[in-house]
């Protein structure tokens, strides 16, 4: 036990806490620094005791605490940020619990994207170089890596006067996709009772973002090639071509080179849309970006929901760093939003994180099994043809056919054929 200005403090208890605790008086003099606070601040408690909080965190210390703003301080000449997660007054002193602020600096945040890894820094620099040009760009990467955000950054920096128009090539059947891209004139087909501009026209003097370009039907590819190469489009039902000044940015999560090799994607179109190429690595290959991304996402959650500054426990961070994130940044955002809302305190513990990882890893393991294994497992679990078919998402007839194909006998489900 120790006593500071009449305050009896069990230092051993406070030091045993994982929380970083600061105690200061009405004059803002620091009275106590826990071992956790030493770690967060990167300073020895002897350097901090009786120091004025304003000397450490700036003259606006009191106002920043009241507003909930992050506090800045310097260590070895480097600016650091700290959050006040909890503060309470007891008679003539205050107890505050602090946590590290974002580890990303201003230069790590680029057009709404966070990246401290060399891969992301290189992408940011590449965007700056190619954005002012009119050349086409192909962005590749797994689902959820942020391909659309890269496209948006290119458009915003480009200074093009027109809008950025987006379309997902896999979201429409071929006939509808053609009319969406190129538009149609009145009377072009049944139901075309008025002219409708296509995406190329809407993006005139701007940017057209063709997402999932790898799913573009082969019959439409020559028309896209002509639009990209010559700036000419053929509006459905019109006898003449129309000129457009549209920059095209494409994105795909497919191995488009493999599609070219197999004849599923035209070679000439591939080279025309990929004058510049940007590949976004999956999150599992740039794990140094995970913690800054978590901090950035949680800051956005606080702005959106206003439930207070919440932070991840060390165990939660360790679990996130060990996870492979098959859904990449989109998965991380989804997980953290749920964790932020569900957490009843200002700390996000590992419960929600571990549940997410367990459920997703189980699903991935199940999906990776071959079809025969999945059928056998479903039969053993349900002991019913009907229930097994429901679990597998197929009809009973389809399940019977597959059982016959793989030589799976009915004895496996006993006598229950319902």
Which helices and strands, and how do they pair?
Elements: E1 2-4, E2 7-9, H1 11-16, E3 20-25, E4 30-33, H2 35-41, H3 45-48, H4 53-57, H5 61-67, E5 71-75, E6 78-90, E7 93-100, E8 109-110, E9 113-114, H6 118-130, E10 137-140, H7 147-158, E11 164-168, H8 174-182, E12 183-184, E13 196-197, H9 199-202, E14 207-211, H10 221-230, E15 232-234, E16 241-243, E17 247-252, H11 256-261, H12 267-273, E18 276-279, H13 290-305, E19 311-312, H14 314-322, H15 328-342, E20 347-348, H16 350-368, H17 371-382, H18 385-392, H19 396-406
Parallel strand pairs: 10-17, 10-18, 11-14, 14-17, 19-20
Antiparallel strand pairs: 1-2, 3-4, 3-7, 5-6, 6-7, 8-9, 12-13, 15-16
Helix pairs in contact: 10-12, 13-15, 14-16, 17-18, 18-19
> Strand pairing plus helix content: what structural class?
alpha/beta
Low-pLDDT parts are 412-417
Main sheet: strands, sense, barrel: 5 strands, antiparallel
For the record, the CATH class of the largest domain is Alpha Beta
Give the name of the CATH architecture of the largest domain.
3-Layer(aba) Sandwich
Shape: globular
Strand order of the largest sheet: 4-3-7-6-5
- What is the alpha-carbon Rg in Å? 29 Å
């Amino acid at each position: 036990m120790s006593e500071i200005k009449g305050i009896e403090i069990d230092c051993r208890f406070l030091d045993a806490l994982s929380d970083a605790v600061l105690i200061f008086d009405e004059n803002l003099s620091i009275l106590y620094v826990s071992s956790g606070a030493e770690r967060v601040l990167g300073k020895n408690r002897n350097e901090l005791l009786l120091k004025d909080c304003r000397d450490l965190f700036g003259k606006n210390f009191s106002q920043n605490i009241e507003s909930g703003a992050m506090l800045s301080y310097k260590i070895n000449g480097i600016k650091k940020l700290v959050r006040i997660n909890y503060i309470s007054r007891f008679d003539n002193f205050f107890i505050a619990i602090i946590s590290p602020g974002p580890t990303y600096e201003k230069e790590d945040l680029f057009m709404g994207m966070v990246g401290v890894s060399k891969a992301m820094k290189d992408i940011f620099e590449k965007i700056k170089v190619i954005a002012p040009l009119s050349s086409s760009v192909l962005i590749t990467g797994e689902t959820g890596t942020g391909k659309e955000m890269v496209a948006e950054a290119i458009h915003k920096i480009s200074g093009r006067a027109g809008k950025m128009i987006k379309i997902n090539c896999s979201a429409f059947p071929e006939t509808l996709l053609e009319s969406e891209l190129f538009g149609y004139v009145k009377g072009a087909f049944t139901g075309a009772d008025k002219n409708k501009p296509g995406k190329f026209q809407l993006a005139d003097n701007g940017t057209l973002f063709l997402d999932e370009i790898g799913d573009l039907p082969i019959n439409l590819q020559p028309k896209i090639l002509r639009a990209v190469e010559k700036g000419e489009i053929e509006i459905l039902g019109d006898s003449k071509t129309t000129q457009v000044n549209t920059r095209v940015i494409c994105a795909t999560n497919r191995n488009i080179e493999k599609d070219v090799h197999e004849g599923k994607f035209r070679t000439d179109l591939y080279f025309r849309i990929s004058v510049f190429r940007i590949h976004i690595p999956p999150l599992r290959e740039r794990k140094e970006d995970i913690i800054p991304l978590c901090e950035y996402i949680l800051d956005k959650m606080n702005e959106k929901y206003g439930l207070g500054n919440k932070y991840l426990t060390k165990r939660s961070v360790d679990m996130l760093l060990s996870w492979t994130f098959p859904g990449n940044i989109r998965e991380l955002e989804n997980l953290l939003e749920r964790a932020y809302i569900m957490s009843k305190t200002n700390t996000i513990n590992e419960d929600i994180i571990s549940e997410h990882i367990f459920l997703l890893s189980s699903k991935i393991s199940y999906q990776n099994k071959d079809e025969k294994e999945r059928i056998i497992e479903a039969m053993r679990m349900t002991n019913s043809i009907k229930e097994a078919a429901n679990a597998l998402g197929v009809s009973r007839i389809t399940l019977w056919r597959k059982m016959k194909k793989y030589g799976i006998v009915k004895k496996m489900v006993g006598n229950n054929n319902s």
